[in-house]
Design a protein that fits this description.
The structure holds two protein chains of two kinds. Chain A is α/β, with parallel strands linked by helices. In chain A, about 30% of the residues lie in helices and about 20% in strands. Chain A folds into three domains: about 180 residues, von Willebrand factor, type A domain (Rossmann fold), CATH 3.40.50; about 55 residues; about 50 residues, Zinc/RING finger domain, C3HC4 (zinc finger) (Herpes Virus-1, 2-Layer Sandwich), CATH 3.30.40. Chain A has a six-stranded mixed β-sheet with strand order 5-4-3-6-7-8, sandwiched between helices. In chain A, strands 9-14-13 form a three-stranded mixed β-sheet, with no helix packed on it. Chain B has two domains: about 230 residues, von Willebrand factor, type A domain (Rossmann fold, 3-Layer(aba) Sandwich), CATH 3.40.50; about 40 residues, no CATH class. In chain B, helix 8 links the parallel strand 5 and strand 6. The N and C termini of chain B lie far apart (about 90 Å). Classes of the chains: A alpha/beta, B alpha/beta.
């Protein structure tokens, strides 16, 4: 697995069979007790740190994101160049992405669209902020067949995103396995519509670079990536977890939100979110009640079906604050493997440096020094 | 031979700030828990935790207005073993050594604080720092684990002071990091309720308890916090009351049911303001003008149709 990441990082590696004969077993090192050491730790750390540096700060971010993921499910997705095949691999990578995405963007919504037989169909878990619903929708059996139509998929996402308020960041990610697109009309007019509606469209190509995809991404200020292998695929998709910068002209708004409390009452009632479902677990005594119209919900965040207000929990908002007040990068000091926080001058090892920036988003040194509070 | 699959690490964060003030004012001392008494009780708890299973290990972090320190384990344990042979007399060796070390290091810490009293004026305990530190320590434990070993860290915060609003974001970051890594945070509040810790325990699935009688600290520690996470489900533990998740608005810190949130910086306000005081974003007027524009749009399209 380590070898894969190395290959991914070095561009232009060529075909595997053209390369030198590799002896991966020679790179394995053992410590004194005979435990296998992970090869090339240093290299992995460097790439991880470089990734951290790539995030620009001081840019206005689209924190509330409405994102549609278009998944190719045409014939080309049956190819076995990704294990076990492209579609299954995409599903597993997507599930990982969804977990990470909601962790980073708790007040965002995701919708899934499948492209097959020249058509595009939204999955039933349309625009929901609930991970488990999406995962269940992904687990249903889908047969990959027919050709792909980028225009149909884009038109559908345009229809789905059009009504979303302009202060939210509207994005489409297309996972594109085929090399062709069978469109009913002029796709360039659709691209212009995307541009007008301020929708950002990114494409991840599973096969080869396609000029049309390149144009789409360029015009809608998205990112076009073509994957090298599974690991790179995951990295490419996970890059979209971080909220993108938005144009300065993007509208800002003061959004009315409700902060409901979890309450338990004596009588049984059905929550609004499960009204349509036939399962019995929708009957309960506890739930969140909309402070405006008293509709009951079992999960947050959600947009109230009855009165349209956005319902969130205060910690869910707090979860996004680290995007807005990011931790300063630590400076690598002259002594190797020592990283110094620029504000408190405490030094950290590489592991703590990565942990602080990736997960904790705090500097233990700064938090422990007596500031002017 | 089967190796130990799971290793439990208890990270105890002890808030010592109030104790210092209490020990200064001798009048109250008789009524409330004295510092020495409290440390003794915590030591007994830690000892029983260590003795209950050989896979248990402990870290102790002291937290104060001036900062936090990891008092146990110490970096060069082997040297200390040799330096204090007298500590081990008549006791189970590692425990006796640890108790001596703990006492010594805590005394050192308190002495170092007493030199800096002027700096303490109107500041609050740096809980977020202690939490960040303990999470980094937990991370280190799992990094240093040998192959096939899983580390199950948990945090126990013994809280003796009030929350500081300035630490809100940092504390929340800690809570989410803990939740992401499945590290439960337990809290034992001594004098005052702490809303941060109530949220922390609720989000990470820990236990929150406010002790009615601080002198009986040990009882609560042994009954509530000694059993491991697995056995909790079969115990009848004190139920925490409903946590208040309402947001407090940025303008006058009131708890609100419905509020206005800035789409750029996510600041919460209780009433509409045209310009965000936090990020200076300019807002359009809410709902009412939008309705007007809709009508206008309709009417204009109608008029167009008529034409």
């Amino acid at each position: 697995m380590e070898g894969d990441t190395v290959d991914v990082e070095e561009d232009g590696g060529g075909y595997t069979w053209e390369g030198e004969y590799e002896r991966p077993w020679e790179a394995i090192q053992e410590d004194i007790e005979g435990h296998i050491l992970a090869p090339d730790d240093d290299f992995m750390y460097k790439t991880k740190r470089r990734k951290l540096f790539n995030h620009e700060s001081g840019v206005k971010l689209g924190i509330m994101r409405h994102i549609l993921i278009v998944v190719d499910s045409t014939q080309s997705m049956n190819d076995k160049d990704l294990k076990p095949n492209r579609f299954t691999c995409t599903k597993t990578v997507l599930k990982k992405f969804l977990d990470e995405f909601f962790d980073f963007n708790p007040i965002s919504q995701v919708g899934l669209i499948l492209m097959s037989d020249g058509l595009s169909l939204p999955l039933p878990s349309l625009s929901s902020g609930n991970v488990s619903v999406h995962k269940r929708a992904l687990d249903t059996d889908v047969e990959c067949s027919g050709e792909c139509s980028l225009q149909n998929a884009m038109e559908l996402s345009l229809r789905m995103l059009r009504h979303i308020p302009t202060h939210a960041s509207r994005e489409v990610i297309i996972i594109h396995g085929s090399l062709t697109s069978c469109d009913p009309g002029n796709i360039f007019s659709t691209i212009n519509d995307f541009n007008q509606q301020n929708i950002r469209c990114s494409v991840i190509g599973l096969a080869a670079s396609v000029k049309l995809c390149h144009t789409i991404c360029e015009r809608t200020s998205g990112v076009y990536q073509v994957i090298l292998d599974e690991v790179h695929f995951r990295d490419c998709l996970l890059q979209h977890c971080r909220p993108p910068g938005v144009k300065a002209s993007t509208e800002t708004a003061l959004i009315k939100m409700g902060f409901p409390q979890h309450k338990t009452v004596a009588s049984l009632s059905i929550c609004v979110c499960h009204l349509d479902s036939k399962s019995k677990d929708c009957l309960s005594t506890s739930g969140y009640r909309c402070p405006q119209c008293q509709s009951k919900y079992c999960e947050l965040p959600v947009e109230c079906v009855t009165c349209g207000i956005t319902l969130v929990l205060a910690p869910q908002l707090a979860r996004s604050y680290h995007h807005l007040f990011p931790l300063k990068m630590f400076i690598e000091s002259t002594a190797s493997q020592v990283y110094v926080c620029p504000s408190c001058r405490h030094s950290f090892c590489i592991d703590c440096d990565l942990y602080c920036h990736e997960t904790l988003h705090n500097c233990p040194g700064c938090e422990n020094s007596l500031r002017t509070q | 031979m089967a190796t130990v699959a799971e290793k439990n690490v208890l990270i105890a964060v002890i808030d010592v700030s109030q104790f210092y003030e209490l020990s200064m004012s001798s009048e109250v001392q008789s009524q409330v828990l004295s510092f020495q008494h409290c440390i003794d009780q915590i030591t007994v708890f830690i000892n029983s935790y260590l003795l209950s299973s050989h896979c248990n290990s402990v870290a102790v972090i002291l937290c104060h207005q001036l900062g936090s320190t990891l008092v146990y384990p110490v970096p060069n344990q082997a040297e200390l073993d040799e330096a204090h042979p007298e500590l081990n007399k008549g006791k189970y060796e590692p425990i006796g050594l640890m108790n001596g070390l703990l006492r010594e290091r805590i005394n050192q810490f308190m002495l170092s604080i007493s030199e800096n009293i002027p700096a303490l004026v109107s500041s609050s305990t740096l809980l977020s720092g202690a939490l960040s530190m303990s999470l980094c320590y937990a991370q280190r434990c799992s990094r240093e684990a040998t192959a096939g070993e899983t580390i199950k860290p948990r945090l126990l915060v013994i809280r003796a002071s009030t929350d500081a609003a300035s630490q809100h974001i940092a504390t929340m970051n800690c809570i989410f990091a803990a939740q992401k890594q499945n590290i439960p945070i337990d809290c034992c509040a001594l004098w005052e309720d702490s809303s941060f810790m109530q949220q922390a325990t609720d989000i990470t699935g820990g236990i929150y308890i406010k002790i009615p009688e601080p002198a009986g600290l040990l009882q609560f520690l042994l009954w509530v916090f000694l059993p491991d996470i697995k056995s909790r489900s079969s115990l009848q533990l004190p139920q925490s009351s409903v946590v208040d998740y309402r947001a407090s608005c940025f303008c006058d810190q009131k708890l609100v049911d419905t509020g206005f949130v800035c789409s750029v910086c996510l600041a919460i306000f209780c009433k509409f303001t045209p310009i965000c005081p936090v990020c200076q974003a300019h807002f359009k007027l809410p709902s009412l003008p939008q309705l007007k524009s809709k009508k206008k749009g309709k009417s204009s399209s109608k008029s167009k149709a008529k034409q």
